[in-house]
Specification:
By secondary structure, the chain is an alpha+beta fold. The chain has 15 helices and eight strands. Strand 4 and strand 5 form a beta hairpin.
């Protein structure tokens, strides 16, 4: 008598209510035993219609909406929009405002990378580094609260400058914070980066080549982890980044370990920029000469910056009025997410969260 073994695939819903999806993100995974044979990302649960709402708002009124995209790096979102408008208007920005922008943006990049490191290690089962990372993020958030009155959605940038000036005491606090953060980053590095359990979980996982990264239009750490040296702060300097000395961090293998390591090392480079900016910041106004009613000349304009997750750009179509005819954001989290299906197929389901977490998406930026 012969017996027949019946084999069936199983459909697994991961999210949209799941802590390791880092937001309301749903992943429909098809499993053959423990192996992933297909993965279908489902987005749109956090869609706010920012780009459509912007068509009925004056340019300054759009700034608070940008806070809600990548809410872990809201200063950078603010700047992406105002930078595009300033580019269209050919505005001159006061030096002090530019220095303040660099300080808050790079501190926000550090805070964002700290959240990645903490939550990624928590996904992999490590509790202590999560707490350490969030303590240091809290120190940065307290500085932001002091300069703009908010802890998450800052609304600090203005077309032509920044909303408020910094006090000498605030600049001193920034100077004192930099060496403290350096020590804490070194501590997290010593605690985690050589840990055999951690290395076995992330080395060789979610690997892609430089060519694949370019074909999928990846940017930020996801692209640089393959060894491709592309950072808009160096390749196409904006603001006053050309005045600072810092390195572009790249990986070699394009795996989850390289993406973790690149973000850790990028924190050190951001601290170098903050240190230089805080020591060089001049006196002067923090707002340039801006028309009372901002009207972008008719035409099409695109400006982009190096966001915490890659190329963050704003594309403006103007008909010469005080509101954009169309506004479209190039959101790196949305673009970087496209490679996820390719990375997951053929992997063991145990590696799913390690691969997803290393891409480092923020759902507010994915859905827009």
């Amino acid at each position: 008598m012969t017996s027949t073994l019946h084999k069936e695939e199983m459909i697994l819903n991961l999210g949209p209510q799941h802590p390791s999806t880092h937001g309301v993100f749903r992943l429909v995974v098809t499993l053959d035993g423990e192996q992933i044979v297909d993965a279908d990302p489902v987005i749109g649960y956090l869609h706010r219609g920012t780009e459509k709402l912007a068509e009925g708002l004056q340019y300054t009124q759009i700034i608070p909406y940008t806070d809600r995209m990548d809410y872990l790096a809201a200063m950078l979102n603010n700047y992406a929009l105002v930078h595009a408008v300033e580019y269209a208007l050919d505005l001159e920005i006061p030096d002090r405002a530019e220095y303040l922008r660099m300080i808050v943006m790079e501190l926000n990049r550090v805070a964002s990378h700290m959240v990645f490191i903490g939550t990624y290690l928590l996904d992999l089962g490590a509790m202590s580094p999560f707490l350490y990372a969030f303590i240091e993020r809290e120190n940065i958030v307290e500085l932001f609260n002091e300069i703009c009155g908010a802890r998450l959605t800052y609304n600090y940038m203005r077309i032509g400058g920044v909303k408020w000036d910094a006090t000498p005491d605030w600049i001193d606090k920034v100077r004192r914070l930099v060496p403290m953060l350096r020590e804490k980053v070194k501590m997290i590095d010593n605690l985690v980066s050589g840990n055999e359990i951690f290395l076995n979980r992330v080395r060789g996982i979610g690997k892609f080549t430089k060519e694949e990264a370019l074909n999928y239009s990846l940017s930020g750490v996801n692209l640089r982890s393959t060894g491709f040296r592309f950072d808009l702060r160096k390749v196409r300097p904006y603001g006053i980044y050309d005045r600072f000395d810092f390195d572009v961090i790249v990986g070699e293998n394009g795996d989850a370990l390289d993406r973790y390591t690149c973000r850790l090392r990028e924190i050190e480079q951001s601290l170098r920029i903050v240190e230089q900016a805080a020591s060089q910041i001049p006196e002067g106004p923090v707002m340039g000469k801006v028309p009372k009613m901002i009207r972008v000349p008719a035409g099409e304009y695109y400006a982009s910056i190096e966001g915490a997750r890659g190329e963050l750009g704003a594309y403006i179509v103007s008909d010469g009025k005080d509101k954009p005819y169309r506004l479209k954001f190039h959101r790196p989290s949305f673009v970087n997410l496209q490679i996820l299906r390719k990375l997951l197929i053929g992997q063991n389901v145990a590696n799913l969260i390690a691969i997803l977490g290393a891409v480092d998406i923020v759902l507010g930026e994915v859905d827009g």
